[in-house]
Design brief:
This protein has 4 helices and no strands. By secondary structure, it is mainly alpha-helical. Helix 1 packs parallel to helix 3. It starts with 5 loop residues before the first helix and ends with a helix.
């Protein structure tokens, strides 16, 4: 009997990639606002194309997961802005939202 670890590696790596994007979105919105959405778009397009060009199933899959996470991150970036406006996450001091919160 031989064991095949590819599926397990993909599962763990997917979990880690998604886990990495969570703080990237939060910190990205905190420091730069939603104006960095295009970086997520470029990352998604480039890694998506790379996933089509890589023959190895493991690396192709991980690149596709990175691409999907990047593209999903665009929406999450704008959702994060809403969460900050609701007070669920801190606004950056000196930012536009910070001034609105301070007036209340």
């Amino acid at each position: 009997m031989s064991l095949h670890f590819t599926g397990l590696i993909i599962g763990v790596a997917t979990f880690l990639i998604i886990g990495i994007f969570h703080p990237i979105v939060i910190k990205g919105e905190y420091y730069f606002g939603v104006k960095i959405w295009w970086l997520f778009l470029i990352s998604g397009i480039v890694t998506g194309i790379c996933s089509l060009l890589v023959a190895d199933v493991l690396w192709s899959t991980l690149l596709a997961v990175w691409a999907a996470s990047s593209l999903w991150g665009i929406g999450e970036l704008f959702e994060q802005r809403k969460r900050v406006a609701k007070g669920w996450f801190p606004a950056r001091p000196g930012g536009k939202l910070w001034d609105k919160h301070r007036e209340k």
